[in-house]
Write a structure and sequence with these properties.
Blueprint: H1 4-7, H2 11-28, H3 33-40, H4 43-51, H5 55-79, H6 81-87, H7 91-104, H8 112-133, H9 138-158, H10 163-169, H11 173-198, H12 204-240
Helix pairs in contact: 2-3, 2-5, 3-9, 4-5, 4-11, 5-6, 5-9, 5-11, 7-9, 7-12, 8-9, 8-11, 9-10, 9-11, 11-12
């Protein structure tokens, strides 16, 4: 399932618009507006792809958006951690939670009894918002999640003895899989409402296939996290050098 060729021409525009959304949010300085501005940067491109009935094109564009958000939020938090702590919703609390986990190995990240209900709740809320609002409210929720994850990674790298390695490895592989799954779920579940409003057709067979892959991704995310989070914490602790 290749998405990259379909998004190559639009990708630079999405990336530029996403970066501009952070610049505007930084200038305004109102945290709640940042995920809304992030969404404005990408939502029209998803809708345009869906009007062509092309779910994979829409998903590919939103994966570019997610990548742009992840990189931008992470680098901003590395360069200006105090400012992004004020700008990104839940940034400081998630940072404190994850720093404690990196330091001690204790916390929700290594406890399936804690993180499975939390992730299931996030997935259910995100899916419900996508289905009910055509993605209009799901995408800001996704932006909030991306921004506070980026804040954790960027600020961890700022304190690290090996910042470059930390910038890569603190984006835990299961988190990356979860982001991809959320993107696909958001696009597919946005399609029913948007297709009714815009009166366009969607390949629902392909939609079910993509949704199944995304659901499998969420299961794989939980499996990887359960098996490897403790070892990943020890690896990060060595790299950070605390």
């Amino acid at each position: 399932m290749s998405l990259v060729p379909s998004v190559s021409f639009v990708s630079p525009v999405i990336v530029a618009a996403t970066i501009a959304s952070y610049a505007i949010g930084w200038a305004i300085g109102i945290p709640v507006l940042v995920p809304i501005l992030n969404t404005i940067a990408s939502f029209p491109f998803m809708v345009l792809a869906l009007t062509r009935g092309n779910l994979r094109l829409a998903a590919g564009r939103m994966l570019v958006w997610a990548l742009a958000m992840g990189v931008t939020a992470t680098l901003l938090s590395y360069a200006r951690p105090a400012q992004t702590g004020l700008l990104f919703l839940r940034g400081p609390s998630y940072r404190a939670e994850m720093f404690a986990w990196v330091t001690t190995g204790r916390g929700a990240e290594s406890e399936p009894s804690q993180f499975i209900p939390q992730e299931a709740g996030h997935a259910a809320m995100f899916a419900g918002l996508a289905l009910a609002t055509g993605g209009l409210l799901a995408m800001p929720m996704g932006a909030v999640l991306m921004n506070y994850m980026g804040h954790y990674v960027g600020t961890l790298a700022k304190t690290s003895a090996r910042p470059a390695m930390t910038l890569l490895l603190a984006w835990h592989p299961w988190a990356v899989i979860r982001v991809i799954s959320f993107v696909v779920i958001g696009v597919v579940l946005s399609a029913p409402l948007l297709s009714r409003i815009g009166k366009f057709r969607v390949d629902w067979t392909d939609a079910r296939r993509l949704l199944a892959w995304a659901g499998a991704g969420l299961v794989f995310d939980i499996l990887l996290k359960t098996l490897f989070a403790p070892a990943w914490q020890r690896l990060l602790l060595r790299i950070v050098g605390w």
